[in-house]
Specification:
Length: 429
């Protein structure tokens, strides 16, 4: 196939054999979020470029080199969203739903776009589920976000494979004081820093902390520590969060080098990481952003949130073989009919059964075919039972009921009794 008719590198189709896992994951998350009282919000995929520059920060990897930006036909600069927080903040401000201190506990799901180097766990179109909470400034809500992800990992059977890393960046004032001390220290060791860190020292010095360069890491050993610069308020907030995690029994490690890529964080930052996926190990990341709403033109409004990467979590479920068997079976019962009269009766019968059992996954054979070919399709569908309508069954107004997996002989069931019979032998999801 010519290259221009193929999908764009790093942007993937999710094929029918993969969608059951995605739907299982998404279904599990959305049920859990409903139960914790979060409401879904849906934002456009495209926004004005300015929105992301203002919120994410001009000197971040995302804005500097990862955005898909283009001019609209009327000359506006637009960008495919690289993350969800900016658009979510824009939406709540535009509709005034956080005004007067109204609490909003929101979640969203959808594709994000970043021009990165595609590799396992890193794509150019990827999918996130994100949460944002507005107008709650205490550590209790930071803790809730972490507690509910902990429950999610438990429900998905991946709790043992993920680890929580935690840090506090302090208020913007304490962060500014720390930044000053760090710049002073690093400037004194300027020549020993790698090139990237030398550049970041000028533009976004905290990012030097998460460098992968060994020489720079060596310089950082004796650098000032963020924890020593926290003001009392941030310190109390952080202690409050840790006490709550301890109360629930959620283990964590403190990582003073965790700064997160985006400019807007303050106080709590956290990441859930796994060592089961190679280099792309962060499956969920977030933190508090008390200054962001104001920075975007709203009234001061505390905020906290996180986003998880669906591709990485699906990969983790597959790697750990934590995919329930039943999710890949999409058919309970397959109806085979032979001859036109049987086809008509079969169609009507199927609809009657569906009326009575709305959750039954009943597939009616299409495209006619011999006994052998229809039976083969029934088997391949994964159905537990085949229903058979041939001349004999038509004459007696019954349907042949044949178990396809394991024991049990074929029986004849009267049409009127079919739904009741199916209800006893198919567990309906
Ligand atoms: P990373 O350090 O892996 O680049 P990030 O800090 O840029 O991640 P965030 O902006 O915090 O990521 O996004 C939250 C989550 O979204 C990440 O933890 C990850 O699971 C997922 N994610 C981010 N970028 C990608 C991508 N290009 N492909 C797939 N998943 C991604
Ligand atoms: Mg990134």
């Amino acid at each position: 196939m010519s290259k221009s008719l193929q999908a764009i590198r790093g942007m993937n189709d999710i094929l029918p054999e993969q969608t059951p896992v995605w739907r299982y994951f998404e279904g599990t998350v959305s049920r859990l979020l409903d139960n914790y009282g979060y409401k879904q919000i849906r934002m456009p995929i495209v926004e004005f470029t300015e929105l992301f520059k203002r919120s994410i920060g001009e000197v971040t990897d995302i804005v500097e080199k990862e955005m898909y930006t283009f001019d609209d036909r009327n000359g506006d600069s637009l960008t495919l969203r690289p993350e969800g927080t900016a658009a979510c903040v824009r939406a709540v401000l535009e509709h005034g739903i956080t005004g007067g201190g109204q609490v909003q506990k929101l979640w969203y799901i959808g594709p994000m776009f970043r021009h990165e180097r595609p590799q396992k766990g890193r794509y150019r179109q990827f999918h996130q589920i994100g949460l944002e909470v507005f107008n709650l400034d205490g550590p209790d809500i930071d803790a809730e976000l972490i507690v509910l992800t902990w429950r999610l990992w438990g429900e998905l059977g991946i709790r043992d494979a993920v680890k929580l890393e935690l840090n506090s960046l302090g208020t913007s004032e304490s962060r500014a004081r720390y930044r000053e001390a760090l710049v002073e220290y690093l400037s004194a060791h300027h020549d020993k820093l790698d090139e990237d860190s030398q550049r970041r020292l000028k533009t976004n010095p905290l990012r030097v902390l998460d460098t992968k360069n060994a020489d720079t890491q060596a310089v950082l050993v004796d650098a000032p520590k963020m924890a020593d610069y926290l003001d009392d308020e941030s310190r109390a907030h952080f202690e409050g969060l840790k006490a709550r995690l301890d109360a629930v029994g959620i283990p964590y490690v403190l990582n003073p080098k965790l700064v997160r890529g985006l400019d807007y964080y303050s106080k709590t930052v956290f990441e859930w990481v796994t060592d089961k996926l190679g280099a792309q190990g962060t499956v969920c990341a977030g933190g508090r952003y008390d200054g962001l709403v104001e920075q975007m033109g709203g009234k001061p409004t505390p905020g906290v949130g996180f986003a998880m990467g669906i591709e990485r979590l699906v990969l983790l479920l597959e790697t750990l073989e934590q995919i329930p068997d039943e999710i890949s079976r999409q058919v309970d019962v397959y109806l085979c009919a032979f001859g036109e009269e049987a086809e008509l009766a079969g169609l009507a019968l199927a609809e009657r059964v569906r009326d009575q059992l709305p959750n039954l996954r009943l597939q009616v054979n299409a495209g006619a075919g011999s006994f052998k070919s229809q039976f083969k399709k029934a088997d391949k569908s994964g159905a537990l039972y085949a229903l058979i309508l041939g001349d004999d069954e038509m004459a007696q107004q019954v349907v042949g009921f044949k178990p396809l997996r394991g024991q049990g002989e074929q029986q004849s069931i009267a049409w009127d009794a079919l739904a009741a019979h199916l209800a006893t032998c198919v567990v309906q999801g």
